[in-house]
Structure formats: structure tokens, C-alpha cells
């Protein structure tokens, strides 16, 4: 993002929460990361990547804008799906602004209308329609999409506070989006210490980075079946102060024994790649060398099993 412009001396400081909602794969997490300027939420080209709310903090001289990235809202097929949808609905009841993300490269569909209808019933919270991924379409398609979004609002009685086209990948109109969200926040002091970019616990971020790497290149139902739990993170004993090493033990859970081979790969090659990729990201996040010990375990049908869901943190 471009550097924030200094606040005018007489503008009051604002602070508050804006959540991004939309169907799976709409680009919510990528947009959150782009606005925060660092990776706080994992992303993938598989739907239903995000599984809990992730807060990313945008610091500006005139405001602190806390972005709440939520799981994609969808028709649930499992207990996990229902839990995720509950998380989304609880979140939008608590925020100051709702940013409804609609990808520019896909015509508005039943999934978008389903969400819009629910948003229409939340009267008091301002709603900004965000048309995402504009780099993927030509100007004419974009114009048609903006008109369609406007019409959708009229149809359902939603008065969009703004309709903004953005591209997180192309860094197009991102600072404009922040400029439009900030005036919709209440006046208030800092909510988080200066410099904090997220309030995600390190252990969760590490598990997410491993899951992101494990999602790479897997297809069909498998992405949904993968869950990651960090069991332990401890500095290795007896290391010299200038050469620390962090031992991380994590389990990758899948639902069926037939999935194990795919995750591990021939001669363990896939699992090794997952380890190498995620270790690089974890080291960048924590700023320390890491020894990553990964195991693949079966948690039978965990997406549908309340007990297993609890164990996995849902
Ligand atoms: N070209 C382009 N691709 C984008 C843009 N934003 C997101 N994507 C891609 O769209 C896919 C989905 O992005 P995510 O940010 O994970 O989507 P999400 O809405 O968070 O998805 P869920 O967490 O599953 O609900 C990824 O492959 C991103 O790289 C964009 O501005 N331009
Ligand atoms: Mg996401």
C-alpha cells in the first residue's frame, strides 16, 4: 500500500472494525493481507480456505481500521460448514462496517444473493460493496458488474454506502477503499498497540501456514479434509544464544486413510515439500530458525463429528 497521508489537524481519530464477507474464494483474505501490508490470513484458490475470523490491523495517522476477515459464507454440507457460517453471522453483528466482496470475474449468482438477502436484514450497519479481482476483467465487464451490484442493492433494499472496484493483486484502489471505510468508523482511540498487525496467536498462525502449504496442489474433497494442529513450540535446549532453534511439532489431520498417501506423496516427497515451504514462511514470521516436525494423522470424518471438531479448535 502507499504511505498514509498525514491527518488534518482537526479531524478526529477514528477506530473500529470492518468485516469482509462474501462467498468462498471471493478474495477476502487476499484483500485483508493487501490492506494490512503483510500476510495475516492464508489464501488459496480452493474455496473455504479461511476457517476462523482473522483480524488484520491497518494503522493510519487519522484512524485504526481493524479488518475482520471471515470464512466464505456458503450452503453448509457438514457440521464444520455450519460452525463457519455461525462465525460469520456473529461477526457481522459486531462490526461497524460490512464490506461485501463480489469477484468481478464471475456473474452475480445465487450464492451472492443469498448473502445479500441476509445483509439486507441488518439495517443499522453501513455496507460497502467491494468488487474484487478487477485485474481479471476488461473495463466493460467491470462496468456491467458494478451496475449489477447496484441493481442487487435496489432489488433487496440495501443502500450501499459505496460501491468500490479493487484489485488486491494489482494494488488498484486499495488506499481508496481504506479512505472510504475510515469515515464509517466511530470516533475513538487506538484499539491495538501501534505496530501490531494482527492479534492472532503465533501457534495458530504457524498451523495456518502449514495448512496453506498442504492445500497447494490438492484437489476435490481433500482441501476440506485437512486440519493442522501445532502440538508444541519450544526453543531447543543447549543452543548458543546467537544460534537459537525453535522446535515445532505439528500434526496434519485428514479424514480417511485413503487420503494419507496423497498428503505424504511418493516416498514422502509431498510432505517434505509442505515442510520446506511452510518452514520458510514460519521462519519469516517468527524471525528465528525452525526445526519443523510434521506428522500426518487420521481424525475420522472430523468435519461432521462434534467431539473431533472441538479437539481441532472449532
Ligand atoms: N487475479 C486476482 N486474483 C485474486 C485477487 N484476490 C484474490 N485472488 C485469488 O483468488 C483466490 C481466492 O482468494 P482468497 O483471498 O483466499 O479468497 P477468500 O474469499 O478469502 O476465500 P475463503 O477463505 O475460501 O472464503 C486466490 O487464488 C487468490 O490468489 C485479485 O485481486 N486478483
Ligand atoms: Mg479467506
From TrEMBL:
Region of interest called G1, as start-end residue ranges on this chain: 22-29
Matching PANTHER family: GTPASE ERA (PTHR42698), GTPASE ERA, MITOCHONDRIAL (PTHR42698:SF1)
Top-level taxon: Bacteria
Bilayer topology term: Peripheral membrane protein
Residues reported in the UniProt entry to bind GTP: 22-29, 69-73, 132-135
Coiled-coil residue windows: none
Residue intervals of the KH type-2 domain: 218-300
Boundaries of every Era-type G domain copy: 14-187
Family annotation (InterPro entries): G_ERA_dom, GTP-bd, GTPase_Era-like, KH_dom-like_a/b, KH_dom_type_2, KH_sf_prok-type, P-loop_NTPase, Small_GTP-bd
SUPFAM superfamilies associated with the record: P-loop containing nucleoside triphosphate hydrolases (SSF52540), Prokaryotic type KH domain (KH-domain type II) (SSF54814)
Region (G5), start-end ranges: 166-168
Region (G3): 69-72
Family as reported in the entry's similarity comment: Belongs to the TRAFAC class TrmE-Era-EngA-EngB-Septin-like GTPase superfamily. Era GTPase family.
Protein name, entry field: GTPase Era
Region of interest called G4, as start-end residue ranges on this chain: 132-135
Source species taxonomy: Bacteria, Bacillati, Actinomycetota, Actinomycetes, Kitasatosporales
Binding partners and assembly: Monomer.
Subcellular location field: Cytoplasm; Cell membrane
Region G2: start-end pairs: 48-52
Keywords: Cell membrane, Cytoplasm, GTP-binding, Membrane, Nucleotide-binding, Ribosome biogenesis, RNA-binding, rRNA-binding
Database matches in NCBIfam families: era, PRK00089.1, small_GTP
Source organism of the structure: Streptomyces bohaiensis
Purpose of the protein: An essential GTPase that binds both GDP and GTP, with rapid nucleotide exchange. Plays a role in 16S rRNA processing and 30S ribosomal subunit biogenesis and possibly also in cell cycle regulation and energy metabolism.
